[in-house]
Structures are given as structure tokens and as C-alpha cells.
Amino acid sequence: MRLSIRAILAALALLGSVLLAPAASATPARGVTAKLLAQHTVGDTDYVLREITIDPGGSTGWHRHLGTLHGVVRGGVLSHFAADCASDGVYHRGQTITERPGYVHVGRNLGTESLVLEVLYVLPHGAPLAVDEPNPGCDFQ
């Protein structure tokens, strides 16, 4: 069943409080800020909804996740790269992205306006939001 990010946000907002969180910690992140919108645990699964902003020229740094992420671009353009240094997608306002567990990647803002994402993290309970990874040999961060 497909749920919109807005529907998920509404459900999580009823279950949790709205809090602020630090920026993503992938290595080396540049120009990234994040706001925690909602957080809730069901059984052994954490659901975390965040708004992530990446400044022009900014990057998440190389990282992976221990669970699945579902995101939607709210503004700007996300340039997404895999560990083989190849682009695996360019996502514009309104487009969605899903990241699978263990997939090493970097998100970059190569545009001139701020990139704003809404991201739902579906993680094993207690798992970090991201696990830093070294640059796999690409000539960019």
C-alpha cells in the first residue's frame, strides 16, 4: 500500500511530539541541516520523520542506513550517487526516492537553490539515522 509522506507525517504527528534534531552526521557533510518532525517506535521499529535542507554546493557525505528510507523532494534538486561514483538518480521537486538498507551513497545539491527533503526513516529500534562511510574513491564528496 502506498502512503503519502503527508499521511505518514499526520499519523506520526499524532503519535509523537515535534522536536529538533542535529544535522545528518555522514562524513564529511557540508551545508546540511535537519529538523526532526516526528518520531515513534512500534515494536522493534523506529519511525523518524525529518526535514533535511542541503545548501547549494552541499553534500550529505558518504553514508549508508540500517533501514529503509522514503523521501520526497520539496524544493531544489537532489543529485544522488552510488559507491561506484555513478549517478543513480536526479530528483526534482515532487519526486520520491527510496534508499535500501546497506546501500552506500551520497546526496548532493549541485543546484543554486536550497534542496529540501522530507524523509521517513524506518529503522531497527535504536539504530543510528546514518552510518558514516569513507569516500569510495570518487573525485567528489
In what range is the share of β-strand residues?
Answer: over 45%
Tell how many strands the DSSP assignment holds: 10
- H/E element string? HEEEEEEEEEE
Q: Main beta sheet, described?
A: 5 strands, antiparallel
Distance between the ends: 35 Å
3D shape? globular
Q: What spatial order of strands do you see in the largest sheet? A: 1-2-9-4-7
Overall average residue pLDDT? 87
Supply the helix-strand structural class. mainly beta
Radius of gyration: 14 Å
- Number of helical elements: 1
The percentage helix is under 10%
Spans where pLDDT lies below 50 across 5 or more residues:
12-26
How would you portray this structure in words?
- A 5-stranded antiparallel β-sheet has the order 1-2-9-4-7. The protein has a 3-stranded antiparallel β-sheet with strand order 6-5-8, with no helix packed on it.
- A hairpin with a 4-residue loop joins strand 5 (77-82) and strand 6 (87-92).
- With 141 residues, the chain is mainly beta.
- 8% of the residues lie in helices and 50% in strands.
- The longest helix is centred in the N-terminal third of the chain and has 11 residues, at 5-15.
- The chain has 1 helix and 10 strands; from the N terminus they run H-E-E-E-E-E-E-E-E-E-E.
- Residues 12-26 have low confidence and may be disordered.
Task: Looking at this protein, list some descriptive labels.
mainly beta, 3-stranded antiparallel sheet, single chain, 5-stranded antiparallel sheet, 141 residues, 1 helix
Question: Nutshell version of this structure?
Answer:
The protein is mostly beta strands and 141 residues long. It is built from 1 helix and 10 strands, in the order αββββββββββ.
